[in-house]
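Action item from last meeting closed. Structure (357 res):
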């Protein structure tokens, strides 16, 4: 009994000690969790207290009270500037006429290569200052444009109805090898634009300050500078039909270069070449001025085919081994005309010598 009692007392003491230690640990944990950390807040300095006022609507841009006027760009320069002709709103004739645009040129008669026993090429010059060729200078306005011949050609080029070919630097290329652009044609007709200085009246109204500004000076085309037309043609004798044919191959306007100071003609050169078979539909839609016959006018295509113009031969393939113009080996102008007539007579005599009378 005594031994059991002692064990019970020892067990009770151990349990009491464990409970006491557990309570102490719990109390320590509570004290640790409830304790607040003590932090010292820094006082703001004087620089940080001076804060800027917030800006509102930062994305918005300031709007000018006066709108900025931007000058429109200059329109591109037309290298082939031709005055626009207004169309008639009523019939400009006392009678009903067939529209010229419905005319089509007749097709050429076919010539076989084996039947062409004689072929010679001839270059002619048509001087528009001669009385018989004054139709080339007729400058009246009609519904299809100005009737001056050079204006008819330039209008067809601008519309794209025909292609202009380069005549070379000195007019040596007449075989339609290099097409030309409108800019190149304009430079050949009037030259290139130049930059020059003129008084700036906007900044210097009275001209006392001498303020200048750069401006682009472009000369205007003068149709009177076209004084001649060159025609390249071929004479063919067809043995099947026993007939001599003449077919125009190309037409080239010739421009005279004149000194602006002395008004002296410095030289003449072709501007471009036009292939005549491609030009025939355009020429058939324009009439030729005829001051002698007011009742019936022919078209330009009929005029060329009927040979109603005055010209002088300036070159031919007859006995011309060096392919030269007459002016290259004959200096006298009268002798040049006689040489051209001699070439014409050789072609005529060939046809006549084929027959016996």
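Sequence:
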């Amino acid at each position: 009994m005594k031994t059991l009692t002692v064990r019970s007392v020892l067990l009770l003491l151990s349990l009491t000690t464990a409970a006491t230690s557990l309570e102490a640990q719990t109390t320590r944990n509570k004290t640790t969790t409830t304790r607040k950390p003590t932090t010292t807040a820094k006082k703001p300095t004087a620089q940080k207290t001076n804060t800027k006022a917030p800006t509102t609507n930062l994305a918005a841009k300031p709007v000018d009270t006066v709108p900025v006027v931007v000058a429109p760009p200059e329109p591109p320069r037309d290298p082939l500037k031709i005055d626009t002709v207004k169309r008639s709103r009523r019939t400009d004739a006392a009678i009903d006429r067939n529209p010229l645009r419905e005319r089509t040129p007749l097709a050429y008669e076919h010539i076989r290569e084996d039947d062409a026993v004689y072929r010679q090429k001839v270059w002619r010059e048509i001087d528009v200052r001669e009385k018989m060729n004054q139709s080339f200078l007729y400058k009246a306005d009609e519904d299809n444009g100005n009737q001056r011949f050079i204006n008819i050609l330039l209008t067809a080029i601008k519309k794209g109805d025909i292609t202009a070919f380069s005549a070379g630097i000195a007019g040596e290329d007449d075989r339609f090898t290099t097409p030309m652009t409108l800019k190149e044609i304009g430079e050949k007709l009037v030259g290139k634009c130049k930059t020059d200085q003129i008084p700036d009246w906007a900044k210097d109204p009275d001209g006392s300050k001498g303020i200048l500004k750069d401006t682009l000076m472009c000369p205007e085309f003068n149709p009177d500078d076209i004084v001649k037309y060159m025609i390249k043609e071929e004479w063919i004798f067809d043995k099947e039909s026993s007939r001599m044919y003449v077919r125009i191959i190309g037409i080239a306007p010739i421009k005279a270069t004149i000194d602006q100071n002395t008004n002296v003609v410095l030289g003449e050169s072709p501007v471009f070449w036009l292939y005549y078979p491609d030009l025939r539909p355009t020429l058939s839609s324009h009439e030729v001025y005829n001051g002698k016959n007011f009742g019936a006018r022919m078209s330009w295509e009929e005029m060329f085919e009927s040979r109603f113009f005055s010209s002088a031969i300036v070159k031919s393939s007859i006995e011309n081994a060096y392919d030269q113009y007459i002016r290259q080996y004959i200096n006298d102008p009268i002798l040049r005309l006689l040489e051209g007539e001699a070439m014409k007579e050789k072609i005529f005599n060939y046809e006549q010598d084929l027959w016996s009378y």
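Note appended to the action item: Residues 119-187+222-353 form one domain.
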